[in-house]
Amino acid sequence: MDKGDIFTKDAIGRTTLFYAAEKGNIDEVERIIFSLSGTGLSIQRLSLITIKDKNGLTASDIAEKAGYKEIAKLLRKEQGRMEFFE
Question: In the prediction, which pLDDT does 23 show?
Answer without folding.
Answer: 98
